[in-house]
Amino acid sequence: MERSKRETRVGIVGAGALGTLLASCLSRAGIRVRVLLRSSGRAEACRREAPLAEPTDDPAALLPASFVFLCVKSYQTGDAARRIAPSLLETPTPVVSLQNGWGNLDLLEHALPGVPLVAGTTTLGAYWDEAGRVHASTGGITIFTAWTPGAEPDAAAAARLFTGAGLRAEIAANAREVLWRKLVLNVAVNPLTAIHAVVNGAVRDSPALYALACAAAREAVAVGAARGFLHAPYDPEPLLDALLHDTAGNRSSMAEDVARARPTEGDAILGAVRREGDAAGVPTPIATLLSERLAALEAERSARPKP
Prior knowledge:
The protein is of the alpha/beta class. Helix content is 53%, strand content 15%. It has helices at residues 2-8, 17-28, 40-49, 77-90, 104-111, 152-164, 175-196, 200-205, 207-227, 237-246, 253-259, 266-280, 285-303; strands at residues 9-13, 32-36, 54-56, 67-70, 95-97, 117-122, 125-128, 134-137, 141-146, 168-172.
């Protein structure tokens, strides 16, 4: 009985656009899904967009489960880990981080000792519109890779769970390389779409923005290679071009955050490149410029009177 439950239930922490998209896709595939919410206001949207999933405000209700997927913003990682730690430390369950930014897994490893951790990156696209509806593109791919020793079977099982739900998934071996490669694309796309209030495809359509995006990506590659996060330097332009093409109509999470006057993940993305660049002695003028522009925009938006 217990084994059956573990094979068919997952927990999701965070009912943002990505968490809600996963709740909808996995629950429609016959998997029992419970979504941990931070506010009752999000429960109504979760029930509407993922009617087969079960919203809850009780971390203990996520277990037993085969996996707990972490889909919160990078700056919410600490709070989320503290909420779920008592249950997970009592019943160790693999945690899969599907977050933007750098440093989330290090924080989770410290907060959840002994819990199997899997790093994940995804190009699934999802955002909330002004009417509170989720717009999603499910053609992207999710890559799973073990973070803690011995979590390789968990990464493979997470990939099988996704493919069984009709989502594209792969496994990889080097977690830090996988995460830094995703960061390279985040650095190139998210800040520019947020600063200019455009969808992803607009970056590709503008020669000036596209050139800046490519330069930001190459700068991040140089930092990652110097720090040993990448096996070798590479040209990120083909991957960037493919991402912008495949997600042309999507709004990045950072663009959404700026539009709604919410905190952004700028520090976990641009700040990470700057800090690691400093550690490696690699200049990061583009990440610095984008950080300054993003910070100014965030300050301006937050200072506006609330409607």
